Amino acid sequence: MSSTASPARNPGFAADDAKAIPLHVIEADALESWLGAQPEALRGWVRAAGFKASLGASLLVPGEGGRIDMALAGYGDAAARARGRFHLAAVAAVLPEGSYRLTGLPPARAEEEALGWLLASYAFDRYQDQKGATARLVAPGAVDAARLEAIAAAEMLTRDLINTPANDMGPDTLEAATADLADAFGATLEVTRGDDLIAANFPLIHAVGRASDRAPRLLDMRWGDAGPQLTLVGKGVCFDTGGLNLKPGSSMGLMKKDMGGAATVLGLARMIMALGLPLRLRVLIPAVENAVSANAMRPGDILTARNGKTIEINNTDAEGRLLLADALSLGAEEAPDLMISMATLTGAARVAVGPDLAPYYADDARLVSAIEAGAARVADPVWRMPFHAPYEAMIEPGIADLDNAPSGGFAGSITAALFLRRFAGGTRYAHFDIYGWNPSAAPARPKGGVGMGARALLEALPEALGL
């Protein structure tokens, strides 16, 4: 990334050598059996320490000269593990610096736990010195180490982008981060800025961003020259005041994360390019600041989108769907094999599923099957929401083709998704209404910006696109 943003992070596994400390992963009901095969001194040490192999517990076992001879990691039971993910990341966070080699971990859990260990090393340290886990893991033999390292690096890019405050992450900085990513992987980037958006027929992007002194822009990145075409569209509102429908202070505090959709599609794009997936990738990011000024769009205005549909603006704080409408219209003009939008779009989605699930909308059975299976395999939980056709009338105000903020307060995430589908042009399409923020620390996921749904999509793409 550029000097105006956080440096690129390259998490990696430790070298496999004789100095790596054995880390025994022990389920609670297997502890006594494991102890029975150990020397009496070790059994005494474990029992004296009160180690019960509960989930996330750890114990260092000293050897000669005070060195660490081995470490134990509690793995609890199936019921405890079902209530979370990345359990060994909690152990990584408390182990002293060094290299560790896992023993006893079920192979089926190796990929999830190895990735969690990599992610545990993340800390957002741009403004204050701090560290994530310093214990490094020797990659378990059952995993593709290079793949996991690429995924972790992409997730850390997403986190850095979201965590950076708006004074250091405006539309120009988001453009710079996208340009750096394009340069790193041989992609091309075309940018349309300011009043050029009008001439290029992106009226909604211009209308949302024109009130800011940081010019709105559309970022259009392309990579790959063969295979099916995948178009990713990410909402890039670098700060959202709500516009003339000004947000209260309590709702504005986290609005640096309103570019979480853009940050997440850039993370997914980095995974795709780093892993060399055989497809043609296009990334569209409308990058703006929704500000307040004399030339801001007004409630009651009627705007015309790129595809010719008219939209009544009944709330200037429902701006994300306007940006995405122009970008989706552009994407649909090429009829890609799959188009996906990701956005921190509605509070209604969070009320419905909370901050840990990524709700998504899709009607294509093959795509849904691929997403559901992929999410389960890589511990990236999603929840399918309905494109409920009877609610279409709720987004039709009568005075224009569409209403950007239907009154009544019902089904806010669904009506937003239905609105967006009007601009997908019949393309095979999925929409993710993500939160992009972890409100409290969890293993491998510190409080702050977080990617949602990207790993599930990466896992789904081979089946969804026939790669």
Automatic annotation (TrEMBL):
A GO term, aspect molecular function: aminopeptidase activity
UniProt keyword annotation of 4Fe-4S present: no
Pfam families named in the record: Peptidase_M17, Peptidase_M17_N_1
Alphabetical UniProt keywords: Aminopeptidase, Hydrolase, Manganese, Protease
InterPro entries in alphabetical order: Leucine_aapep/pepB (IPR011356), Macro_dom-like (IPR043472), Peptidase_M17_C (IPR000819), Peptidase_M17_N_1 (IPR048816)
Gene3D superfamilies reported in the protein's UniProt record: Leucine Aminopeptidase, subunit E, domain 1 (3.40.220.10), Zn peptidases (3.40.630.10)
SUPFAM superfamilies given in the database record: Zn-dependent exopeptidases
Ranges for domain Cytosol aminopeptidase: 315-322
Superkingdom to which the source organism belongs: Bacteria
Claim: Cell inner membrane is one of the keywords in the record: no
Family: Belongs to the peptidase M17 family.
Name assigned to this protein: Leucyl aminopeptidase family protein
Lineage: Bacteria, Pseudomonadati, Pseudomonadota, Alphaproteobacteria, Rhodobacterales
